[in-house]
Amino acid sequence: MKNSVQESAGIEWVDGSKLGDFDFADDVALLHDSRDGMQAMTSKLETSKKVGLQINVAKTKFMSIGYWTNQSSILVDSEQVEECHVKTFAI
């Protein structure tokens, strides 16, 4: 994953560092503060097909918190990724 996502991509922390993804087993959660940035990260991750990995669009969801200026959907191989509207937070 380190090679798939740019270190400059993601959401910015108070100290100026960026967090671009969470990885757990074969699951990956990408993080970005804009729709265009999220699409760019998703498209870059699609290059994993070269080594036999692919994004399962049927199991993939995206969620936006706040307001993205570009409200269009995220695409994987020209297929629209479903938006998830349920937000559950652990405190």
Characterization of the model:
- There is one protein chain.
- This protein has one helix and eight strands, in the order E-E-E-E-H-E-E-E-E.
- It is α+β, with helices and mostly antiparallel strands and 91 residues long.
- The protein has one domain (11-83).
- A hairpin with a 2-residue loop joins strand 6 and strand 7.
- The relative contact order is 0.16.
Element layout with pairings:
Layout (H helix, E strand, L loop, with lengths): L10 E2 L5 E2 L1 E4 L2 E4 L4 H11 L15 E2 L12 E2 L2 E2 L1 E2 L8
Task: Spell out the key features of this protein.
91 residues, alpha+beta, 12% helix
Gist?
Helix content is 12%, strand content 22%. The protein has 91 residues and is an alpha+beta fold. The mean pLDDT is 78.
